Amino acid sequence: MNIIEVKKLNFSYGDIPILEDVSFAIKKGDMVALIGPNGSGKTTLVKNIIGLLKPKSGEILINGEKADDYIDKIGYVPQRFEFDRNTPITLNEFLSLEKCGKDGHDCKNIDAYLEKVDLTAYKNKRLSSLSGGQFQRAMIARALLHEKEILIFDEPSTGIDLAGEKTVYDLISLANKENKVTCLIVSHDLSVVSSFTKKVICINKKIVCQGTPNKIINPKTLEKLYGVKIGLYHSH
After folding, report:
1. CATH architecture of structural domain 2-226
2. Residue 145, number of CB atoms within 10 A of its CB
């Protein structure tokens, strides 16, 4: 069953086309990667799916419904989250703002997920005191707090060291496997794409290709996507 369907989506900033006739589907419970060069429309596509932007034409369906009617069931971690660093709010208060509407489900998972992202010691510290990497881990915890049906991550390891990066993707993978949460991950890290995802969608304004990592992650296909020869190396 498809949980996300994008049909002939077009989006422009003014007269500049960003997405052109984009169509794809994601099955319920899948872990999917969205890859493409800088400026290819990945973040714009994600923002259309979660309703922050409106398409010029085309359709987005979530579980067969209009995306606008489903937004509270989607968790989203942006690549960058801007806020006034003078705001006197603690990490615990920030996470408490995230609601899912289920009875008795409000803040019960905060301590557990702070521990999983190694931020327990920062629970009552101001949000502004966190480093970039710590704040990104806090955003991961925020997305995982409640039983969302879809989680969307835009470069979730931004600002996180290599050890922390594995922890982040392990957490996402755990949510996908244990809770059958559908995950869409924007990533430049092809080793992550190969290790964690079941499907890869390649975009450069248009859909260039899509399929399993074994089919997509090869020099010929990546040259088609990025326009240059790509060397593949094993990560350690």
Report:
1. 3-Layer(aba) Sandwich (3.40)
2. 23
